[in-house]
Amino acid sequence: MSRNRSSELRVLQICHDYEGPFRLVCRQYNEAFPDANVTTVYLRGKSSDEITLATGGDKVIYLESEMGALRGIKFSLIFQLRELFREDHFDVVIAHRYKSIYLAGIMSYFFGPFLILGVAHEHNVFKRMTRSLFVTFWRRQIHLIAVSRSVARNIEASCPSLVSQGRIHTLGNAISEESELIDRTDARNELGLREDSFIFGTVGRLVEKKNFEMLLGAFAEADLDQSSCLVILGSGPLESELRALSGLLGIEDRVAFVGYVDQAARYYRGFDCFVFPAGDKEAFGVVLLEAMFSGLTILASDAPGPDDVLGDVGIRFSGREDLSRKLKEVYSLSEEQRKAIGEEGRQRYKLEFTFQHFAKHLRSLPPLASINRVVSSPPEES
After folding, report:
1. pTM of this prediction?
2. Phi and psi dihedrals of 296, rounded to 5?
């Protein structure tokens, strides 16, 4: 007897945690399935009504795993997910980052078949041979979604057979057109910034790959007048080191380390220019979408990841000396010129990176189009 299937698509989303941009990332995938029943599972992180609301979908489950549970074979998570799969039948599992992809693959061995969309948010995710073999040979129903062309090329180098099998797809992230923005004056007041300053703003974890050390050096070399300042929103392990560096460079009175700010994008209009110093290690950059949405002039590295996001808008730099020159260039622009550059970015966002655009392209991917046809067809008679 054939197994009857509901006409409602059932989707499970597995995410490592909800830190950084991932609550937004999960939201965009949930919004792409308004006609489906969608459950989101966060492997790590305490249960939160605020996160549940921000994530959306029909159900949000928190496994509240400790950090160590995400290493190794992850037996405890396998047992927890097994109970979830026993209770429900899923047509599609969206798995963010390799740990989630691995767990979804294990579940498919016992509870398949179902489609797995593994989302790669970074470079070199499949550089390890064991990971490459897992998605290439052991779990052939896994399709990989790269968040940028540079990530897709990186996957192709590690898993070349996936190209001929049509199992690598490229789809960038998105942000909602309903995102709330605070006006310039209020944003500066809330962040404790002077109204008459020219502010170069940047946002991100204070970690090596974000290149904030280079940004501080370039800002010092630019030798702009005292009305300019650099504002950094974010926290991380390099904070004390970066603060010390700003002192050594003699710019500590013109650099503001604001720390972590929840929903930081709301304050972007308090900036005159958004600076994105991350280089080749950066795979995408959701903050660039937020800066485009805010209508800011963007000064970013010419690395492949940021280039995939910005296309032909914004201003690029290559290396510290060039960044220093471009900081001077932006500072010398008139307000009208900066607004014109920012508007180009906002128009690119509207054309390429809205939730609606994301949903259209996600649902048109060949593996999902096939699933949609199967699920929406009438159940077979016994």
Report:
1. 0.88
2. -90, 150
Q: Return the structure tokens found at 120.
A: 């790669």
DSSP state of 36: S
Burial (CB count <10 Å: 0-12, 13-18, 19+), residue 282: buried
Answer whether residue 108 is part of any domain: yes
- Does residue 231 sit in the same domain as residue 279? yes
Q: Both 89 and 40 in a single domain? A: yes
What burial letters (b/e) apply to 251-267, b meaning 16+ CB within 10 Å? beebbbbbeeeeebbbb
Pairing of the two strands 37-42 and 59-62: parallel
Q: Is the dihedral of CA 50, 56, 60, 65 positive or negative?
A: negative
Instruction: Kindly report the length of the chain.
Output: 382
Domain range for 108 is: 10-174+355-376
Same domain, yes or no: 150 and 190: no
Confidence of residue 73 (pLDDT cuts 50, 70, 90): low
Between CA 282 and CA 121 the distance in angstroms is 9
pLDDT in tens, 355-381: 999 999 999 999 988 776 544 444 444
Amino acid (1-letter code) at residue 67:
M
Cα–Cα distance measured from residue 327 to residue 272, given in angstroms and rounded to the nearest whole number: 11
Per residue in 230-245, pLDDT (tens digit) is 999 999 999 999 999 9
Q: Which residues pair with 96 in a beta bridge?
A: 119
Report the CATH number at residue 246: 3.40.50.2000
